[in-house]
Structure formats: structure tokens, C-alpha cells
Amino acid sequence: MESLQKPREGIVEFYAYISQKVSSDLQVFYNPRMEFNRNFSVCAANVLCRKRENVSICDALSASGIMGLRYICEVENVTEVFFCDKNPEAINLISRNLELNGFKFVKNEHGKRIFEKNGKRAIVIKENALRMLSTNIFTGVDLDPYGTPAPFLDSVARATYWKGFAFITATDTAALTGSSPNACLRKYGIFSSRVCFSKELGARILLSAVIKAFAIHGKAFLPRAVLYHEHFYRVFGEVLPRESEITKLMKRFEIISYCEKCKRWFEEPREKCACNEKTKTIGPLYTGSILDKGFLNELYIELEKRGFEKEKRVCKTMLEEAEITTPFYYNLHEFCSALKINPPKIERVIENLKALGFKASRTHFDALGIKTNADWHAFKEILLSTE
Ligand SMILES: C[S@@+](CC[C@H](N)C(=O)[O-])C[C@H]1O[C@@H](n2cnc3c(N)ncnc32)[C@H](O)[C@@H]1O
Ligand SMILES: [Zn+2]
Question: Does CATH number 3.40.50.150 belong to domain 3-251?
Fold first, then answer.
């Protein structure tokens, strides 16, 4: 049973349908657990909007409008937010939520409801987001679909200003993390497989699709952060119109080979592993940088300023893993089970790697993941000698 309640997120109070079970059957969708994601997004937007003026943001799939409301109320330099949803109930709820937060209805114009408060404009429209995105340009686009963002990526790339930014969510984790390779191939055009670094693989598959969609429109999507939490991915990127940047990104696409038996990857196509086992082919996959230290440092300060403790802890781990540019990580338990040994403490392995001069860190993608620039042989040796 769902009921209309009045929760609060950040500085915004709003109406939302809340039920024990979150599903797309709600009159208007709202998932309280995604507050984590929205807190991150508000802070990321503050970092990116600080260096821009008169920012317009599009909350392309608004539902209750909570994300867009938080952008317009909590982000510096945002002067306009566009709310769009195809569900008429959502449009009514967004309007009500704007009024609850002091926005005054001004007029209806070409099917759009326009609201204003202190020189800020909120525009609410009931439309198919694909159509709306194809006829407008925004400084920033936020896309939060049910499941995969794939059908929207071309439209988002087109609608994002050439010096803007885009935040994109995906919740189709089975397709992204190698559990459903055929679904991944259909949606993202990428071969995948079960691997010991599945959570980072998912992030890179999603980013590969996003980078390609923007490249087609002559825009470089520069990843600033990828967040993986519970059941979702969220990519945060800045857009630049430079051909040289697009080429640089596209040159980081590679075919990867993976040996299930050794839990070993090769950043090249290879039929067989050194152990003679046939490898799995993954890709073409973006292998470049996915976490930007400069951006994460600023994000951390924003999270701290607002007292978002859980989010801050995740950001801290991201900052540590951003030091290691080598893609992927080893899952300690999977690697140890391949070696038929009991797993040592993760902290000890990281200490030992560092003591031998390697870079090593945990990763926010996986509580049992170790990211390191040590190669497979070195990692295996250190693991075998760690008590
Ligand atoms: C996951 S919800 C968005 C949640 C929201 N961003 C939040 O933070 O609570 C997805 C929304 O997209 C809307 N939607 C799905 N496909 C759409 C389309 N093609 N055009 C417009 N709205 C669409 C649904 O009605 C639903 O409200
Ligand atoms: Zn092997």
C-alpha cells in the first residue's frame, strides 16, 4: 500500500508516494534509498556549476521532481531547471512540490507550466523525454531511467551543451556486471563475461556507451567520477567540444581477454592464457581514467560542508583508488579460491604491496577488491606470502 507522505531531502521538503516495496507501479516513482545518489549529485553539480554562469539543468525523467528541486534549491548558479516526465500524475506532483518550496505558478506556455521564485525559473512539461531532449539544449542533463539508460544516450548527448555536463544513472546491473552477457551485447554492443572485477567492468561498459554516444555528436564526455552503490551506477562527466579530446578517449577502447581459471586479464586480444586455458573476450571497452582527483577533492569538500557522512566515506575511497590508473581490481576471495588458499586480511595484502613499492588501495566498487599497479605475477606472489 502506498501513501502520500512529506519527506525531506537536503533543504527540500516535498510530497512523494511511499510504499514498503519500491517499484515502477507506484503512482509516481520515488525511492528513498536513492537519497545517497541525490546527495552526491547535488554536490557534484555544485562543483561543476561554480565555474559556470546562468546554468540550466534538465531533470529529464523527473518522477516527483525531487532531483530537479534539489538542483534549483541547493546548487549555486542554477537559474533554470526543466522537469520532464511522461506520467501526468508526476507532472501534477512536481507542480505541487514546486509550490510547496515557494515557487509561484506564472503561466502555461506551449504545454509547459512555468514557475518562478527569486529570479529562478522552473519549467514543467509532460512529454516523452526523447522528443523533449531532441529540441532543447541544457548546460547539464540528469538522466535517471528505470534500468538501462541506453535508449536515451543519443538524445542526452545531443541535448547537453558543448561545454556542459551530464549525470547518468543505470540500474541494469545484471547486464553491466557480466551476469547477462547477451543483454549487455544487445543494449551496449559490448562483449562481456563474469570476471573477478565485475563491478568496475560494469562502470566501464556504461562509460563506453556514454563516451561513444557523445563522440558521435562531436562532444568529448570526460569522466569525472563513477559511483557504484547498492543496485545502481551513476556516471558524472564534463563535456568538451574538442576533437583531440574525443580521439584521446576513443583510443582508450581496447579488447580485453580474461582467464577465469587464473583470474587474470590481458589488455589485448588473446586466445589462450599462459596456463593454456581459453580466454573470454571482453570489449571493446574504455580503459582510460574514470575518477578525476581534482574533481573528487572538490566533491569531498562539498560533501563535508553539507554533513553527508556516508557519501563522504565513499568519496574518500574513490580518492584513494583514483591514485591508481591501472584499470580493474582483484577480488581477494575469488583470487584466493583460485589459488586454493585462505584469504588473508585485505589490509595486510595492501600493506605488503605498498611495502614492495607498488601502489595499492581498496576500491569503492567492491568491499573485497584490491586495486594495484602490481602485475598478476607480483600480486600472486605477494598474496601467497601474506599471512
Ligand atoms: C526512475 S524514475 C525517476 C526518478 C527520479 N529521477 C528521482 O530522483 O526520484 C523514471 C521516471 O521516468 C519516467 N519515464 C520513463 N520513460 C519516459 C520517457 N520516455 N519520457 C518521459 N518520462 C519517462 C517515468 O514515468 C518515471 O517517472
Ligand atoms: Zn589462466
Answer: yes
